[in-house]
Amino acid sequence: MRRFRTALLIAASTTALLSGHAQAQQAAQPAAPVAADATDGATEIVVTGTRTLGRSRLDSASPVDVLSSQALTRQGTTELAAAVAAVAPSIDFPRPSATDGTDAIRPATLRGLSPDQVLVLVNGVRVNSSALLNVNGSVGRGSAAVDLNTIPTAALERIEVLRDGASAQYGSDAIAGVINLRLREARSGGAATATYGIYHTDIDTARGSRSTTGEPVFTASAWQGFGLGSDGFVTITGEYVNRKPTNRADLDPRTTPANRLTGRFGDPQVEQYTGTINAGKGIGGGFSLYGWASYQDRDTRSAAFPRLAAVNGVAAPAVVTAGYPDGFLPIINTKSTNAVGAVGVKGDVGAWGVDLHLGYGRNKIAYRTRNSANYTYGAATPKNFYDGAVIFDQWVAGLDVRRKFDVLQSLNLAFGAEGRREGYKITPGEQASYEGSGAQGFGGFAPVNAIQRSRRSISGYVDLEAQVTQAFLVDVAVRGEHYSDFGDTANGKLSARYDVAKWFALRGTVSTGFRAPSLQQQYFTSIAQVVQNGTPVLTGTFPSTTPVAAALGGKPLQPEKSTNLSLGTVIRAGGFDLSVDAYEIRLRDQLALSENIQSSFSPQVAAILAPFNVPSARFFINGLRSRTRGIDAVAHYRIGDAANAAGAFDFTLAGNVNEIVVTRVPTSTATVNPAPVLFARSRVLTIEQGTPGEKVTGTIDWTRGPVGITVRGTYYGDVNQPGTTPAADIHTGQHLISDLELRYQPRKGAQIAIGASNLFDVYPDRTIVANNSTGVLGFPSYSPFGFNGRYLYARLGVNW
Q1: CB of 392 within 8 A of CB of 131?
Q2: Domain range spanning residue 299?
Q3: What HEC string does 313-336 produce?
Q4: With bands split at pLDDT 50, 70 and 90, how would you rate the model's confidence at 724?
Q5: What is the model's pLDDT at position 771?
Q6: What 3-state DSSP class applies to 609?
Q7: pLDDT tens by residue, 428-487
Q8: Is the peptide bond before 325 cis (omega within 30 degrees of 0)?
Q9: Is 229 exposed, middle or buried (0-12, 13-18, 19+ CB in 10 A)?
Q10: How far apart (Å, rounded) are the C-alpha atoms in residues 557 and 743?
Q11: What are 447-458's pLDDT values in tens digits?
Q12: Average pLDDT along the chain
């Protein structure tokens, strides 16, 4: 594998990342008309990674990708995170299943790092993370990340992805980089679109084969732009999604007769409503007022492991007594509501540009367990339970000031401050959801788990960007932050670029970064069933400073810290451009959720846990160290004109090669001797091998007038879903996924598109019998392209 990756590192200089056309605009100005297929990197003005106005993607000192709305919508999926992952090789979006709330709030990763190590902005303003803490065995375990799917694709003009450490510029979380969602700005026009798709696939699991046609997905969206006076705009977007569940479970060998389908393993059932508004208006005196808001209501229903009435011919009395003579499949119902928005004013005070804004975001996830039972109640058990809720909210106030000086070639000075207040709350469920054995599948939060905590932070930064000569650019940024819970941190970044010739440039950065431990990581507490090697285990998750965790060696959490290095080149000539960027990210004090420290480990552990009446406990610990090395490459070539007889061709070949090595693993809590295993090999290997080490995407877009064709092939390297031993590891294998779309899309009027995602019905390597005793896990849930098979879709719309 190492030799294979080395070869790909060399080959990566010919690969690339899909970029679409976008033009940065002042928030209070109307959107300028832009050719739908324009993709000239020299004119793609970016506002992420630089505080100098007018800097283009190919002129920046740090690698920035621009993903247009066209690139995001010319595919079958309408999920934003999945659409981004399809065109950006450095971003991955696993689709876990049987992982409780993580089935509903699925996190994306950048450069293989944790989902909470990438900062997400909307129109340049930090947005709230999800209230969900991922405590199950999936990619991103232990993280509380931003849910990209809370913003509909139809509301976006473009996405800017800064693939570089940026804590000195933007603060906490920007260790891997920054994703900036830029909302559509329109004074007029609009569109409505309806997309309908079904899976048409052959499912070959270890114990049998079957075919499926159906499991439909329906998405309807519309946007409309309105003029607001002579210089303002209001753009409103609405989206509705109805997704039926998919099922790729294997046959269950424990049933009588053997090998019946008892589980549900795949995408959850989803019904979702989202509304977004973006607006801007001049208010005189050179100032403009701007604001945006988005609200989403998402109802998700995923399945837990089945509870059988008889296992291998041996009756399960509790199941039958609970009123399920044929067994039951618990359904975990999460109701997520997310509200986020910001208002601000910007303008010029003399020679100084000033931007003052205030943002707020709130995510609430209420849990219910349906079609279940609490065995403690016997025949009187309820079958549906309210399990409680988790809530996270965030206030952000920021001031940004900039001025350009006629010093050297040019000198841009920017400075500012930001204040944040974050809050986290757990509310208990009904008594039957947590009492005794609790609701099967997902036990509720008890009153003892209820908590309400908050913290504040304040930061200041200075950013100095100097065009020293016509060819030499230098950018220096420093930032200091104070947190009310753990104290102070300071970070810096130095970026430089040298244009050797008009067609060739070198660039590089060195920076330090940090990520503050989230309130979810500090205060989440619950006693629940988790799945280890296919077996449910009762465990308690506790804050690291609670008495039970402290007795086992828990300590107050500290921020993760990083050192980032990158070196790259940019080549461009005519319609061709290529960027290649190598990087290294060293993480220390990395946070992770420990293993279950069980009373059965030793008499000492049993004595520690006995007063707290819990059979096992786990908590977050600082102390892991890791090193990430890789190469991103971006090549793009455009020829022809859509108005000509031959049409226009856009060729993109995109690639990322990434290698993560965990260099230090804590082995002792300092209070238990001998110490239990704090981080099993499965946790370490998930960090190292849970995302593909190689991902290459090739895309051809052909357009002639209103007719267009998109062909895309994406190669995914092997991913390991590790078990407790090498024999229990589940590998996805190396696979090529092919997508095809044909469309008729005039600028105005009716539009139609038909296509296939995963045209050749490719699956990850199936789970072998030895690693699937329950039959539920038909395929590895770590698969970076999912495990649903061929998806056929049609899209109808109208532009006006």
Answers
A1: yes
A2: 2-799
A3: CEECHHHHHCCCCCCECCEEEEEE
A4: confident
A5: 85
A6: helix
A7: 999 999 988 899 999 999 998 999 999 999 999 999 999 999 999 999 999 999 999 999
A8: no
A9: exposed
A10: 52
A11: 989 999 999 999
A12: 91
Integer angstrom CA distances of residue 752 from 73, 163, 298, 642, 746: 13, 34, 28, 18, 10
For the residues of 184-205, what is the DSSP string, one character each?
P--SS-EEEEEEEEEEEEEEEE
Express as a percent the part of the chain with pLDDT over 70.
93
User: For the chain, how far is it from start to end, CA to CA, in angstroms?
Assistant: 52
Say if strands 616-618 and 535-541 run parallel, antiparallel, or are unpaired.
parallel
Number of domains into which the chain is organized: 1
The one-letter amino acid at 15: T
Amino acid at 99: T
Q: d(Cα 612, Cα 606) in Å, to the nearest integer?
A: 10
Is pLDDT at 21 greater than 70 in this prediction?
A: no
Residues 6+ apart with CB under 8 A from 230: none
Please give the Cα distance from 84 to 91 (Å, whole number).
Answer: 7
Sign of the Cα torsion 591, 596, 602, 604 reads: positive
Nearest residue to 134 via CA among 530, 447, 680, 535 = 530
- Integer-rounded Cα radius of gyration of the chain: 26
SS (H, E, C) 255-305: CCCCCECCCCCCCCEEEEEEEEEEEEEEEECCEEEEEEEEEEEEEEEEECC
Each residue's pLDDT tens digit, 709-723: 999 999 999 999 998
Q: Are 30 and 288 in contact (CB under 8 A)?
A: no
pLDDT at 65: 92
Q: E strands, 516-575, where?
A: 526-532, 535-541, 560-573
Tell me, yes or no, if the pTM score tops 0.85. Answer: yes
H or E stretch covering 629: strand 620-640
- pLDDT for the residue 469: 95
Q: 203: domain CATH number?
A: 2.40.170.20
Residue 735 C-alpha from the chain's centroid: 22
Bridge partner list, 633: 580, 655
